[in-house]
Design a protein that fits this description.
- This protein is mainly α and 302 residues long.
- Helices cover 63% and strands 2% of the residues.
- The protein has 10 helices and 2 strands, in the order ββαααααααααα.
- It has a two-stranded antiparallel ribbon with strand order 1-2.
- Strand 1 and strand 2 form a beta hairpin.
- Helix 1 runs antiparallel to helix 2 and helix 3 packs across helix 10.
- 25% of the residues are buried.
- The N terminus is likely disordered.
């Protein structure tokens, strides 16, 4: 499971969570790699801490699942070797699988139902990116429930249940075998700012535009803390405003580029970061647009 999340480390990209912007002389101070939109947005709403706690809980559950995988490998090895793993061990493993799936479903449901726009955007973006990498969590959960049933059938010496009818098991297993391992990349290694140090000092106009954009973006994110209370038109308008903010960041970054003030070192690091997620900049932007369109469709169906 890959959670695209950006964190707080010296006002630069770090692992797992968006950092909270610092305030210096009543001014939002922003130094980001990439335009700070979508999962890379540095600003946090007042309800974002709830997402942090839920993600901590989910990551803890995933650690349990990782340890449990070794036990399943041992059971499979015993079966393939002609040994009897034992009824008690099989039933325990089946119950453990049910428990893990239930926890996954509860955690993701809580994130999907969050009142906060930023949280909903993040979980939809991450889910879509997992699917692109061949890690569809919903399919995996269904298969784990089925496997738990198979373990119980083996324990009680009864016919195994049929696999889920809506899943092509052979195709899923083939994709899983071909899927490259989830890469590891220390996003905390991106230590360079996106702009050269003297970028804002050279143009008072651009410096004011930068400060105003930071303030507007932070205010919009805070407004989204109560996204679930918006009516249909309010939600659609809010997503439109988010995308206008994105356009403003693109324009500002273009100006820094024309001034020759973009940092090539940060660009290289960001390309490496996207590559570790099997994405390029265009993939990232298209996935974010796909996420916003999915949120629009959900709003229209309410």
């Amino acid at each position: 499971l890959v959670l695209i999340h950006i964190g707080k480390t010296d006002c630069f990209i770090s692992s797992h969570r968006p950092w909270t912007p610092s305030l210096e002389k009543n001014r939002v101070c922003l130094e980001m790699a990439f335009t700070p939109v979508g999962p890379f947005c540095p600003f946090r709403s007042s309800k974002a801490d709830q997402m942090d706690a839920q993600l901590d809980e989910l990551q803890s559950k995933m650690k349990i699942e990782s340890d449990f995988r070794e036990e399943l490998v041992d059971i499979q090895g015993a079966i393939e070797g002609g040994s009897d793993p034992g009824q008690g061990r099989l039933l325990h493993a089946a119950s453990k699988m049910d428990f893990i799936v239930e926890d996954w479903e509860k955690a993701f449901s809580a994130l999907h139902l969050s009142p906060d726009y930023q949280t909903r955007e993040f979980i939809l973006f991450s889910s879509a990116q997992m699917v692109n990498m061949g890690s569809d969590l919903l399919v995996a959960a269904k298969l784990m429930k089925w496997q738990a049933g198979c373990l119980r059938a083996l324990a009680w010496n009864t016919p195994p249940p049929l696999p889920p009818s809506d899943i092509d098991l052979e195709q899923f297993l083939t994709r899983s075998e071909r899927r490259p391992p989830v890469p590891s990349f220390d996003v905390g290694s991106i230590k360079e700012p996106p702009f050269l140090k003297d970028a804002l000092a050279e143009s008072e106009l651009i410096a004011r535009e930068h400060a105003q954009l930071c303030a507007d973006h932070a205010g919009l994110i805070e407004l989204g803390a109560n996204y679930d209370t918006f009516d249909q038109s309010g939600k659609l308008s809010y997503i439109d405003e988010i995308e206008r903010i994105e356009e403003r960041w693109d324009i500002l970054y273009a100006r820094f580029g024309l001034m020759g003030k973009l940092n090539k070192g940060f660009s290289k690091k960001c390309t490496e970061f996207l590559s570790c997620m099997q994405m390029n900049e265009q993939d990232y932007r298209e996935l974010l647009k796909q996420t916003h369109n999915a949120m629009r469709e959900a709003a229209r169906l309410e």
